[in-house]
Amino acid sequence: MANVELRNVTKVYEGGVKAVDAANIAVSDKEFVVLVGPSGCGKSTTLRMIAGLEEITSGELLIDGKIMNDVAPKDRDIAMVFQNYALYPHMSVYENMAFGLKIRKYAKKEIDVRVHEAAGILDIEELLERKPKALSGGQRQRVAVGRAIVRKPKVFLFDEPLSNLDAKLRVQMRAEISSLHSRLQATMIYVTHDQVEAMTMGDRIVVMRDGLIQQIGTPLGLYNRPVNRFVAGFIGSPPMNIVTAKVVESGGQLMIDEGDFQIQLDGDMADTLRSHVDKDVLFGIRPEDLLYDETAAPQNNIKARVEVVEPLGAEIHLYVSTSQNQIIARVPPRHDFQVGEEVNLHADVTKLHVFDMESEAAVAQPSGVRA
Ligand code: ADP
């Protein structure tokens, strides 16, 4: 059992920087939770407070219900894998993995069993006698993870462990860490600035910005129902299109009016936005919810001029512009788009998002999708 709970945890560094502001996070036993957000949002500070490498200014950290604020890092039963996983260059892989256990005075035999067990899990048994300089980046990363595994900690913490690897290796290691999580059945907390890593690895994701938690949810929950403009723009790639528009009413029908295009609002969305008639709002639609369909009915189409065509093989990212906004669409590669061409992009009206102009909080979200 290992659950981790942060209760109103705040960190103010000397000099007054409030890096983390009243964070509340409850990580369940065996859960894989990812902390994600742009650089400087307080992710590493949060992780380091859990590890005990950084003092908690106020609030409480609990592991399995016990307050840990004043417990030394070595007594927290936590292992951390860093971005700069400095291995000892003069030691073999075996010695690197054994080192932590050795200084904790484990018996030689127990160390041997644990190192071989971890090496088996990570498929690095044939590398045990090598020195780090004779390893590839991915192999070194595996050894760094191995050093954590041999400790059999209650909780694994990862601080951007893949950011030094090239793109292809990152994708591979991402899958390896996910499968490691299912095999070890351990509680893991993982920090990254990469929303794709967060989406693909996390059971749940904590989105942070400027020291404040914005939203905690499952990957699909965040994707389908972001609570504000920031989360909407951060989760998903290419990002959600978000433009200023007005809610208007004509003959009882509510519409989003961008100036160049109008989108009809029905059902719950219309009911929710009735109080916003004649007000400016932020209108959001994801690139994948704009469908290229020349035969679609004339309403709910965004008529726009093609500016940039990015063919990716399986799909095309189409950058189009209205007189006021640039909009991105993800469309199938069925049409040979030309720069300057006028296209109709049909908005899937079941996938619209509307945010408040001032607070940027979600006012209306798609209903009937997974939260
Ligand atoms: P992230 O991991 O999301 O990039 P950090 O937790 O490293 O963010 O940093 C959060 C904020 O705290 C940043 O503004 C950063 O400059 C500041 N910060 C981090 N470490 C220190 C420190 N030791 N002293 C003062 N400020 C710090």
Order of helices and strands: EEEHEEEHHHEHEHEEHHEEEHEEEEEEEE
- Percent of sequence in beta strands: 25-35%
Tell me, briefly, the overall form: elongated
Strand arrangement within the widest β-sheet reads 6-7-8-3-9-10
C-alpha termini separation:
27 Å
Task: Tell how many strands the DSSP assignment holds.
Answer: 21
What summary fits the major beta sheet?
6 strands, mixed
Mean pLDDT over all positions: 94
Q: Unreliable segments (pLDDT under 50, ≥5 consecutive)? A: none
Helix percentage? 10-25%
Radius of gyration: 25 Å
Number of helices: 9
Q: Output the structural class.
A: alpha+beta
Bound molecules: adenosine-5'-diphosphate
Tag the structure with descriptive keywords.
alpha+beta, binds adenosine-5'-diphosphate, 371 residues, single chain, 6-stranded mixed sheet, 25% helix
Task: Summarize the helices and strands and which ones pair or pack.
Layout: E1 4-12, E2 18-27, E3 32-36, H1 43-51, E4 58-63, E5 66-67, E6 78-81, H2 93-103, H3 108-122, H4 137-149, E7 155-159, H5 167-184, E8 187-192, H6 195-201, E9 204-209, E10 212-217, H7 219-224, H8 229-234, E11 241-250, E12 253-257, E13 262-265, H9 267-273, E14 280-285, E15 290-292, E16 301-311, E17 316-321, E18 326-331, E19 342-347, E20 353-356, E21 362-364
Parallel strand pairs: 3-8, 3-9, 6-7, 7-8
Antiparallel strand pairs: 1-2, 1-4, 4-5, 9-10, 11-12, 11-14, 12-13, 14-20, 15-19, 16-17, 16-19, 17-18, 20-21
Bound molecules: adenosine-5'-diphosphate.
The site of adenosine-5'-diphosphate has 12 residues, from helix 1.
